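Thread: quick sanity check before group meeting

JM: Hey all, I'm pulling together slides for Thursday and realized we never actually wrote out the predicted structure for the chain we discussed last week. Dropping the sequence here so it's in one place. If anyone has concerns about the input, flag it before I start.
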Amino acid sequence: MMLRRGFILFLPRLVGLLVVACCSMSIVYMLACTPKGDNQQPALPRVHSPTVKEGYEAVLQEREEQHRNYIISLKKQIAQLKAELQGRTEQLKNMQNQYPDPLDIQLEHSKPEKAQANLLAFLRSQVDKAEVHSGVKLSTEYAAVPFESFTLQKVYQLETGLTRHPEEKPVRKDKRDELIEVIELAVGSLNKPDGVSRAKPRVYTASDFVEGIYRTEKNKGTLYELTFKGDAKHQFKKIVLFRPFGPVMKVKNENVNMADTLINVIVPLAKRASKFRQFMQNFREMGIQQDGRIHLTVVYFGKEQMNEVKSILENTSKSANFKNFTFIQLNEEFSRGKGLDVGARFWKGNNVVLFFCDVDIYFTAEFLNSCRLNTQPGKKVFYPVLFSQYNPSIIYGHHDSIPSLEQQLIIKKETGFWRDFGFGMTCQYRSDFINIGGFDLDIKGWGGEDVHLYRKYLHSNLMVIRTPVRGLFHLWHEKQCLDELTPEQYKMCMQSKAMNEASHGQLGMLVFKQEIETHLHRQKLSKKT
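JM (edit): ok, ran it. Output follows.
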């Protein structure tokens, strides 16, 4: 109790001491923070002075003057920095004007000034890091950067979005200027004298350009491979250029002679004789008559319709005087991977380009050349992205009749789509196929074996050329969704079927067909009244 009373008596004194301490600290703080002149004591006016207002006005004017001087000083520094930056910009422009022709830069022999040497070293490292001279190991099939192809008039592209088309003129100025520049540089390189041959050199022009492919690796640069007509039939000139986010640099200039390069087209088959007849019409026109450097291997499963298929093959052989074919019959359940693997290993001749094909594929002679140009033993394999045809009865349903097959094969949004999820049609040398281990023979039926092989190539040091091509088409055929499928599988099958039937716009027209017809009927009635 005594302690409690003592504490109560001491409490007012403690409060008073705290108040005095706070007041003292406030006065000290005000004295410390009061602005000073250059040679003056703190300018805090006394509280009871008659000139309090004039004192504060003087302090404010002094502070304003200090800030004004500081702003003037900053402006002077900014002006100096601008002048220095402009001078550096002029120096950089002068260096760029003195920079040599990009195609004259030899990666191994250039000896420029120190600044240029640093720049060239960086550009060289970009070429080395990019997938130019050899392939790199990739983790999945989605990691591969696809090429896009182009001619003088058109660009064939995968990523169309909502406004672009699978085949279109390069309407964007930057893309048009880019491709024109690359073609002009390639033509200039071809016409540059080599200093070896004394014969009058041929003058190349842009009209000699056949086709090109290009792709951009986001952090390295753009790789271009351009093909020109050579000095004779089946001979070509290939120019490889690389833009490492700077000047284009010539990487390679080589002659490519494809006159003796044979393609072995391997087709696995079971039944489907009517489709095989259509395939052989295409093979005869494009492969035998126009190309002529081709072999056909048919691997047939079972015996049903086998005689009809053999008869079609023999009739084509007689009428076209074509002997370069092989027929292999297997008495077992159909397996696409097994058929292609058997056909590839059956070949006993020299190293040959293998084109794995299906019976519902249409190809042109130009595609066969692309197949040759984009494969190289031990270095490159070709995985073209083909154009998949929509259902002709839906596309041309409003026409009087469906056009011929050749007239249907046009690359437009309304007629089909790039089948960029398919890896079944591929070209590679037989030696690469054998060395990689071929197909997984445990996979039965259709599907899966193509992705498995594709991943093998991606995991190797071979370069995988993935690009849409203008001469390879998947012909529409009805997709069957079996009753044995689970509800989820059946739903997925129907979604796939819808995607192959028609474009979004065309399917929408079918969905709203009744509404459209009702509207047209009302329009007719309103005109009569």
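AS: nice. The domain at 263-477 is CATH 3.90.550.10 (Spore Coat Polysaccharide Biosynthesis Protein SpsA; Chain A). Residues 52-98 form the longest helix (47 residues).
JM: adding both to the slides.
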